[in-house]
Amino acid sequence: MRQEAAELATWSGLDAHKQASLRGLLGHKGRPWLDHVEDYFAFGRSEVFAGLQWRFHVALVEGKPVASVCVWKGNHTGLLGHVYTHPEHRGRGLARRLMQSALEDFERNNGRALYLNTEADSFQERFYASVGFLPVGNSSGSMVREFRPVERGNKNPTVREMKWSDWPALNAFALSAAANGMSWLAGGVCFPTSIEHSFLRLVYRSAQGAPQARIHIIDSGEGKIEGFGSLTDARRAICSHPEDNHILDVCVPPAHSGLKRKLLSRACAGINEAVTHYTPSERGGVFFPDLNRHYRASHALPEYFIKY
What we know:
By secondary structure, the protein is of the alpha+beta class. The chain is 23% helix and 28% strand. The chain has 8 helices and 16 strands. The strands form 4 sheets. It has a 7-stranded mixed β-sheet, sandwiched between helices. It has a 4-stranded antiparallel β-sheet with strand order 8-11-12-13, sandwiched between helices. Strands 14-16-15 form a 3-stranded antiparallel β-sheet, with no helix packed on it.
């Protein structure tokens, strides 16, 4: 393999010139995959992205980026994406050099677990495996590289509104054994699976409007998420019922079932109508005796769906 001379750089603060350079390299991806990048260009210095570290690792040839690796890190968990090399510069070792640089930078910055999503049984998956990534559970195409174990949460978890900095940890929860068998109706997925793309499609903030989903999480400390509840505009949901205004999802493992009521009260504040769902095993449990005061079955909805 012929090595190409290139300067490796890490960009975090992005001026107008760097933004234009990245648009030129990644612009072919289009929406919604670049919405969060455009949002970062517009709001990166504001409170919207507080706590979420964005680092664009680039290979420069004659001052122009020809390859990229992007890492988002919230607390100790990260997401890796936008791994791309311009076709004219492929096969010259740039991607591997850039990836190694990005991994070393993540570890130096106290990163503990870095996740990615790619096509299963592909050249890309084999490439990621060659730099230390392993498949996550039985989720096809999702991989993780652990640099050190993510510490267990505390014994007194709290319920709070999700922030952008929680995005990597929320994805880690969706891929965990604790989420196995749950589903996110609004996102159109069953766990364990990556929700990186579902999250971007539903929750990204843009200059054109407000977030399309309200998410509250169970925060057990050390940046670890152990459950969430979301209320989503049904018109924006990937899996929706057209007659309803909102879709309510509550994804909480049995160990934290006592917090479901608090999640519900936070998620449904000010909302008069919503659709939610449950599994046969949840009937008669902690969750639905409380909900039965407010929810009713609807013949217009599939089995195991109820309407507020």
